Amino acid sequence: MRDGSFAEAEKAASSIANEIVMGHLQAERLLHRDYRSSYRELFDWMKLYADLPSARTIHTLTMKRRGRNPAPPGVEAPVVDGMLDLFDSSALPEAGDAKPAVGMLDRPREERGRMSAVRQRVRQLLGKGDFEGAGKVLAAGEKRGLAEADRILVLGDIARFAFFAGRDERAVELVPLDGEGPVVARWFAGLSAWRLGRHEIARQHFEAVARAPDLSGWMTAAAAFWASRTHRALGAGDAMQAALRQAADHPTTFYGQLASRQLGNLAAYGEGTDRPEIEVDRLIGIPAMRRAIALVEVGEPALAIDELVALARAAPTAVADSVVAFARTAGLRRAVPRITAAIREAEGALFDDAMYPMPRWAPEGGFTVDRALMFAIIKQESNFRMHLVSPAGALGLMQIMPKTAAFIGPDSLRGRDLHDPGVNLAVGQRYIRHLLEQDPIRGNIIFTVAAYNGGIGRVTRWLSEIRHNDDPLLFMEAIPTAETRQFVERVVSAMWIYQRRLGDRTASLDAVAAGQWPVYGSGEDAQRPSIASTEGARVED
């Protein structure tokens, strides 16, 4: 199929029982660079295979070729046949994360157009800093019958823009305190109220977010922890403890670890990992699992892995545990970190060696930077895929740009293969040390990780523009680039877990839990030699 032999591939597929992998084979054809798929072909595929991993890509292509034709069916999560309820595994919320009760494409054309026009106009005004005008457009839209779900989306846009622009008064004024309200808007209104020192208003917003259903463990822990900060400021000790316990229920998240540290019950690595698993043979009733098994049998392990990752992301933990077990027995061990992370990072509930692997790689010349920090960056950048190439051209485990390697690498590394683990880690480690030594970073771990993702120029600008009141957590939440904001949270959280797995000190966790800036060298250094420091760049299968 990948070489363009479409007829031969489909003829071969017809011999497979129940044509169970036909959807994958047809998707390969529809998306192939040498095949021009029609709207009707794409539409018909979506009617049959909307729960396949490639459905989102095909849906986007169908919409591009739609013209005046009907909208295609929406993308569906993998069906888990009612064994357990599904849960939402979204990450931290952005303005578009609120889920309308009715899908946009299922609405009448007039209603879709009204929503698009209102939101587009609001965003234009927000981009110009006209928050009053944006509020007027929203009010006018409400008078013309803007749906409640759409009002929530637009309100979230305004509150988010206001917070990042430092217009805290506007965010606080805009978002009502009554009822549960829109989650995204209340989150940013809470942060704005905190920055203004209005702790009672912030408390009400954060508690509303912490009570909201269908949020990821990362978001629930964040809201509960910030609620605990407001309780502390208000002198409500019992309420503070209760909020910390809620955040600590998600122990592998950033805020869950902070809460556990403040409560004094930070678990050792590996504690609390026992969970009941559903036997693999019971998963045969799940269509995605049947497809994955068939794909392995016909020699398509990459497509099987895509199915398993999508299933793990949609399924409850007990189901996902059995998906991981199947991957191991099916000879897909290298995919286990992807499959495991798909659900467990979203839930933030378990420690697992598959989530936090420690391959026997080392930089050429050995480790000179804390291994926990190195592993955490690798986990977030590439999830330990040494041959990964990003759309921007970043390469390998630490996603090094060739121009960065040319700038930072010594002569002995220039021109070397960045897919080689020893070379990639050596360049990445040298770049981290370079960042740590720069002004205005000066060893600050949060600034260093932010600069690794967003660049030192941006970090310098953010430090001059963000009003963070010398509060590390407020600075982190006020980083205006969503990718960098999440990168910092995920990397620092993973670093703390790796430090616990390695038996190292968690000085930066202690510092942030105490409201202080985390400084590299206060326990985050490479005092202990790597298990692979004398073995070159080997990988343990």
From TrEMBL:
**Highest taxon of the lineage:** Bacteria
Q: Which UniProt keywords apply?
A: Signal
Q: Where are the transmembrane segments?
A: none
Query: What CDD domains does the annotation carry?
Result: Slt70-like
Q: Which GO terms describe its cellular component?
A: periplasmic space
Q: Does the keyword Signal apply?
A: yes
* Presence of keyword Signal: yes
- The Transglycosylase SLT domain is annotated at 367-470
Q: Which GO terms describe its molecular function?
A: hydrolase activity, hydrolyzing O-glycosyl compounds
**InterPro entries registered for this protein in UniProt:** Lysozyme-like_dom_sf, Lytic_TGlycosylase_superhlx_U, Transglycosylase_SLT_dom_1
Q: Which PANTHER family match?
A: MEMBRANE-BOUND LYTIC MUREIN TRANSGLYCOSYLASE C, SOLUBLE LYTIC MUREIN TRANSGLYCOSYLASE-RELATED
Similarity field: Belongs to the virb1 family.
The protein's name in its UniProt record: Soluble lytic murein transglycosylase-like protein
Q: What organism is the protein native to? A: Stella humosa
